[in-house]
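pipeline stage [seq->struct] | target=TetR family transcriptional regulator | organism=Planobispora longispora | residues=192
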Amino acid sequence: MRKTGAPPVRQRLLETADALFYAEGIRAVGIDRVIADSGVAKSTMYVHFRTKEDLVEAYLRHRTDAWRAHVDAEARARADDPADRALAVFDVFHEQLSAPGYRGCPFINAAAEYPHHPGIQQTIAYHRAWLHGLFPGILGTEADPRLAAALVQLIDGAVTAAHLDRDRTAARTAKATARLLLAAAPRRQGES
């Protein structure tokens, strides 16, 4: 029987892993620490995740799914015009990159810590595929693929500068550059 108000065991494990892995690093946090901090029995943890790497994959999948939903909802709420919606993405990233406790991209961090683990690399690729499809989805299929690729590179640069240079304005700088690229992009026929 579950305690009233306590999240389900799997969720508690994911939330604990998320907080610890992101704040301290995946390899720096042992599975025993996740188990202790989540208040879950070791045997129960292994019912949900056979290995630490399975937990890492679930943590990353949970992160990307939550981030995707957040970015999509926020961009749609902030703008109707496709170009303005694309720029709104940079605002959403700015909020994340300038938040206290920002410790870099969890996917870049995981790629550095697990460069050869197939499951973890596959989850990172799943996240990257979303990012590469984000701007074509916003701008439409007729948009120049080079423009979409350039916008992704601006996001990647902002993420990196925010972490390595501690530049909390990196996404705003990227947005200013994105605005120039979008203004210079050829308009589709029928647009003014």
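stage status: PASS
auto-comment: The domain at 52-184 is CATH 1.10.357.10 (Tetracycline Repressor; domain 2). The chain has a mean pLDDT of 93.
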